Structures are given as C-alpha cells and as structure tokens.
Amino acid sequence: MPKKRSGGGLSPTQQAAKFLGVSVLAGAVLAGIALPAFGALGLAAKGSVESFDELPANLKTPPLSQRTTILDADGGQIATVYSRDRTVVALKDISPYMQKAIVAIEDSRYYQHGAVDLKGILRALNKNAQSGGVAQGASTLTQQYVKNVAIEEAGDDPTKVAQATQQTLGRKIKELKYAIQVEEELGKKKILENYLNITFFGEQAYGIEAAAQRYFSKHAKDLNVQQAALLAGIVQSPSRYDPVNDEAEATKRRNVVLQRMADMGDISQSEADKAKETPLGLKPSQPKNGCITAVKGAGFFCDYVREVFLNDPIFGKSREARAKVWNQGGLTIRTTLDPQAQESAQASIKEHVNKSDSVATAATIVQPGTGKILAMGQSRPYGFGKHETQINLSVNSDMGGGAGYQPGSTFKPIVAAAAIEGGTPATQQYSSPYEMEYPAPVSACDGRSWDEKGVKLTNENETEHGPYSMKEATAKSVNTYYVQLISDIGICPVTTMAGKMGVERADGKKLQQAPSIALGTQEMSPLTMANAYATFASRGTYCTPVAIESISQRIGDRTKSLQVPKSTCSRAMSEKTADTINTLLRGVVEDGTGQQAGLGSRPSAGKTGTTDFRYAAWFVGYTPNMAGAVWVGDPAHKRKMIDISIGGVWHEKVFGGEVPGPIWRDMMNGALDGKAAPDFNYVDIPDGDKGKGNGNGDGDGDGNNGDNGGTTDGGTDGGTTFPTPTFSIPDNLFQGQSNGNGNGGRRG
C-alpha cells in the first residue's frame, strides 16, 4: 500500500510520478478548465512536460507583508501602518471551525489528495463540458496558496500582479510544480496555516486574523461556526460576497458553506440548519491604516518616522529597497516620543489656536544632549479634510514639510554665540542707532564680501537707540545692535556656527552670505530651531535629531532587530560660550520680550521672533532638560498677523512673546510637570556703561535707550509697547527666499 505523508497525501515521488503519468491529460484538461480558448495557444502536452522540467526547483516565498506598529517611548501605541492589513497567526490560534470551513468549500478532498487532485480535475472537466464554459475550477488549496504567493511577491506592481494571475498554461504548469514542492516541504497543516494567513478576505483584510477583526472585531481563534462559514465563503469572490455591502448575497454564500460543512461531516445537519437561521451578526471595525490614526495629535510625528525610514541608508541602499522593507511591514518601531510632552504640546496648541484660524501653529520639543524628539504637533490636524493638512509644518521640506518660515530674532543668539566664541566679550557695546544703513563691506566666506550700500534698517521705534551692550540688546532684541555685531565679526563665523548647531534652511539650500541673516531672514523649521537651542541647553553640545529608539521586525516565525540611526553629538561651542548665551537669554524671559513665556520658578531661557509684516511669530526656549520651538503664521505666507483673531482672541498686532510665548509656556509646563528643575550655569555679565558708543555705529549715544519699554518682540505685559516693524529690504537683495512662503520676514 502506498506510503502516505503525515496529514494525508501521497509521497513527493508518487505525486511527481502521478503528475508526469497524467501529463498529457493535465496539459489538455487543465487548459480546458482554466483556458476555454486553449486550442488557440497551439501548445502540446509534450511541450507542457518540457516546460515543467525547465522550471526552477524552488518556489520563492517572500515574507508576508504585515502591519507595522509605531510606539511611543513608553511603549504605548501611536499608530498602525501597513501596505496590507495582516497579522500572521499560528494554526492553533485559528478557530477549528474556520479550518474546516475553508477546506470544505475550497478543497473538500484536501487531506486525501496530493498537490494535484486528479479526481477534481476530471470532475471539473465533466462539469465544464456540460455547462459549455468554466463552471468549476480544479485548483487544490495548495495550488491556490502558490498562486497567492505569486500575488504577494508582485506587491502593488500592476504588471507583476497581472502576470501572477494571468490565465495561461505556462502559469498553470508552474503552479502545479511548485504545489508539489510545497506539499513535500511543508505538509498539509502548515500549508493550511499559510493559506489562511495569505488569503485576501476583502475590505482591506489580508489573512484570517485581519478578517476576523474587520468583520467581527474579534480574534481568529474566537470565530464561531457561522462566522467562520461567512469568512470562508468570501474568499472565492471578496467583492461579490462582501457582507458589508451586500448582506443578502453574503448570507446565501455563508449558508452554502454551512451546508457543505454538514455534507462533509464537519458539523451535524441540525447545527448547519440552526446556523443558517442566525443573522450575520457583523460587528465591523473600520480599517485603521496610516498616520491619520495616530493618537494625541501625533500624526505628523508618525509621518516623520516614516520619512526617516525611507530616507536613511541604514534601512537599505536605495529608497526603493527601503520602501520594500517598509511595505513588507511586520515592524514594531519604538520611538522617542514622550507621551506626556506630546499630550501637553497638543493641549496647549488647541487652547491657543483653532484649526479653522487663518493662521496655524507648529511646535516641537527635543531633549538636549540626546537629540531625541519628544513632541511634535500643530493646529491643523493630519488629514485630508477642511482645515486639515498632510504637510508637517515642523520639519524641513525633504522630510515632509514645507519651505520653512523666517525665524526673525530667534536667530540672533546664534550670531551672539559666534561672536562670543570668536572672542567678542558679552559686554560689547554698539551705538545701535534707531536707523542706519547696513555697514559695507562685510566679510563673508571664501574671501568674499557683502558690499551692498544704501540699504537701511531701523529698530522698532525712534526711542529705541543705544548705546546698548549685548545683554540689553538681546533682551530688547535690537536690530541695529546685531547688524553692527555681524559686520564686526563677519558673516562666515555666523554661518559656520549655524552649521555646527544644525541650523539649515528648510528648503535644503545653503545659508546665504548676507548680514541680514542676523535678523532671521532665511526660512527654517521649528524642529531645526528647537534642536539648535538645545545646543545652548546642553552647554554647547549639538546632537542630531532622532525619532527612533529601536525596531524589531517579524518575518514568519522569527523576530529580528534592525539597526536604527543614532544621534551624533559634537561640540559646537565652548561651555563658557553656551553659559553666556544662557545668561543672556534668561534675561529675555525675566525682563525682556519673552516675559509671557516664563516658567515661574523653573529656570528657563529663550528668544522671541517676529518677522517683517508679521507673517510669522516665534518663541524658541529651553530649560536644561527640554528645548522647544513654537511658530505661528500663515504657511502660505500671505496673511499678515495684523487685526487678526487667533484662538478666539483678537490681536491688533501679533508678537513673538504674545502668541507663541504663552503656547510655549503652557506646553513646557505640562511636559516638565513632575520632572527635575535643574538650573543653568550662569556667568557674570556686567551691565555696560550707557552713553559709550563702540563699534561701527555713530558713537554718539545720548543715554536714551528706550526706557519707555520699546521692544522688537514681545507682548503687552507691564505697559510695554510693540510698534510695527518699519524697515524693509529691496526684494532683489536676496534670491530664492520665497519658495512659496513669500518674501517677508527680513527683520528681528
């Protein structure tokens, strides 16, 4: 008696012999079943056998694509993303009813035949001959599995999918040979497990676990007999038997499966009849795929994680290779996102800015000394609807963001750091007149110089003129002081310092060699500015931003760890320089333009920024353990923030300390709640003697330094006034500034 394999079926040798023994029949009969126009192909049985022999011996079985889960730093789920919604489960975790139902309706002789069912072929041939068409197929469940493997390998490529499903004799022969190989290597139970995990059940559900969740909101192991019958019936035609869209047709199909199970002895007739009378009992769950499903407003951070994966060579040599790994899925990505910080950021944004406002806000928090991104949110939610967007306003254009926004006076501390690092004392004074021309020439990199003459700039109002020292000029954000400073030290030390701090244009272009850079004229992203200020907080150490802590990937029954990009830290400036900047910027929140952003007893430092014509307003600040940036403005750079309602509050004019400052304050208070409150290392910076002009200005300081409170940025706290920015720069002075965001923002 022939020796049977475990689980039923002939031995591989016998299967091959049977196949070759009926090759003539198979060449014609199978073609007659699957290909009514077979005669037109002009293929002979002999050719079929030769094609069979020439096929590769092994079936290429790619790992099944599965969903990817993105987690926060505490292990909480942020979102699930997938190319195909699938969760692979073992056969023991699939309801016995489901196993019996799929065999009963798709291949009732599954455990009696080998890879090819000769009786099934003859039965199908007879049935099709009687009907005059293709009324019945003869593919075994194993053959169906092989076909599904080919479809899976094709991915989303329509040409490859067509090749995997085309009705040709060549494909059928290939399918038969691979079916024999699969039966030899896997056995019946494993094939059934693989089949149930790979099969498409409609409604974006691939595999039985996803299908059970989609239609019944339960696990595959918990399916009852009527539920199992419904899902088994869907496989033949997921669109025709879709119970969500055609309950009547799905019910008929389910009852056919139930009867077939009774005929096969899997259930009794009474069980089948009782199950037929029950309603479908659908409890569908909506397909949840992509960053749009992210919790706590973390959709944009989720999208940033995806961009990191697709852009970083550590995940593959080419973008195509990285995309293949991403689409294959099965990843568990643990990120740096701090749930407390993220929740606080989003709550503060919601409190201060409405998603329907004519302007938007974006906020980012990073951890000094590590580069870890702790929070990332914005007022316009991630989505496709009204007042929603898929553009991540916090990041650079190559990572899913826009062209950035001019940071205004928040760039001035970088100029100060370059000066101090180069030997300029923090007590340096300049005449800082109310109005002046840009000094010329000003040295730039590579021996070049900026030599544009006749371009004027002013401070906020006529009472604001020096002489000022660096401390007071920083607190009041005095434009003319910082232009005199950069003309003294040159442009190159500033752009060099910016590079060391990771400061780059959001559009990827190089920083332009112009003295107006001191006033924040070149577009940058909130993530860039937050991470740059983290350099000050960590006493001069810059760390590249990172969003991913670890990644594990499940491939079949195995789980492996993937390498992830690590933050690279380097010294951007001396500790003394950083400590000096921290001392200067503490003054901004204590008695300067950023008073409304203060954190009370918790030590903090920061800088306000408001661009020309008020297209954008900023507050960038930090404590020793967190750094954050808040931007408010029109992403299209068209709406001036004058006579405007933001978050239900009317503003005649928007200032960095007035709108972004409170957002930053509330965001940071919540993010830091319960955490340590370390202090900075301060340096002693004596107040400069007023009336002593020094540097490139007119040197005639009269001691009238704007004691009435005139400032560049800030709120209306304590009687401080906020005049409108008044100076402008010719449009042809800078090239490539707009990038869809306009030409504004050329002031502090």
Strand content: 5-15%
Number of helices: 23
How many beta-strand elements? 20
User: In whole angstroms, how far apart are the ends?
Assistant: 93 Å
Adjacency order of strands in the biggest sheet: 2-1-3-13-14
Report on the architecture of this protein.
There is one protein chain. By secondary structure, the protein is an alpha+beta fold. Helices cover 36% and strands 12% of the residues. The chain is built from 23 helices and 20 strands. The strands form seven sheets. A five-stranded mixed β-sheet has the order 2-1-3-13-14, covered by helices on one side. Strands 5-4-18-17-16 form a five-stranded antiparallel β-sheet. A two-stranded antiparallel ribbon has the order 6-11. A hairpin with a 2-residue loop joins strand 19 and strand 20 (649-653). The chain is elongated, with a radius of gyration of 35 Å. It starts with 11 loop residues before the first helix and ends in a 76-residue tail after the last helix. Mean pLDDT is 83; it is low at 1-55, 133-137 and 690-748.
Summarize the structure.
The chain is α+β, with helices and mostly antiparallel strands and 748 residues long.
Provide tags for this entry.
748 residues; alpha+beta; five-stranded mixed beta sheet; five-stranded antiparallel beta sheet; 23 helices; 36% helix; 12% strand; elongated; disordered N terminus
